[in-house]
Amino acid sequence: MIVETDEDLKGIQEISDIVAITLKEMREYAKIGMTTKELDDYGAEILKNFGAKSAPFVTYKFPEWTCISVNNEMAHGIPSSKVLKEGDLVNIDVSAELNGFYGDNGGSFVLGEDINENQKLVDASVEALYKAISAIKGGVKISEVGRIIERTAKDKGYKVINNLGGHGVGRGLHEEPDCILNYYDRYEHRRFKKNSIVAIETFITTNSTSVNTMKDGWTLVGNKGGFCVQHEHTVLVTSDKPIILTAKNGI
Questions:
Q1: Residue 26: strand, helix, or coil
Q2: pLDDT tens for residues 54-99?
Q3: Non-local CB neighbours of 134 within 8 Å, separated by 6+ positions
Q4: What DSSP string runs through 65-77?
């Protein structure tokens, strides 16, 4: 989406605030012994109170309101009777629609005590996300995002997923530019456009380099096991510093 009017900016900021607040409150609500469905139900009520709809459902008929992935699940986990345990690496991805505008954000965190020593993985993902976002402005090559995320992950001893990436967002959940990859692609010559809205995502792992779809048709898991993290912000590209529209999620 290209922001062309004050009404465009107001609309995209409103839904970005909503998904950010929902993500933050869901993270704070998550408890050991809770099911991922209970956590999703809580997020659903927040979105409903804002008058927002689940973007994965509106767009793809995803069966629940938010995506909740645990440990080796990279993305698109279906909330279920799965019980959250001490030390689980939990990812919540909240995207929603309001008045024709879409916002998207997500974040991984360690639940309770870090018994699996995954906080460093989480920290590396957050660092990579902000380094990548800080490099974005109109005219910058899209491949720079992948270069920065890949370099940051490798410097910390981690890997990146090569078949997932960020994307444009705004009037739809997934728009151009698609495939904002987590690795450097020297054949990628597209550039960020001023006033465009993009969702920048990290997909960083301890072992895996790609994801496969589970039998449920949604959940994506690492091809070589290990732990997976994802962090995401919706961003307005400018001619100078980018504006993080989902900053209220606290990541």
A1: helix
A2: 999 999 999 999 999 999 999 999 999 999 999 999 999 999 999 9
A3: 241, 242
A4: SSEEEETTEEE-P
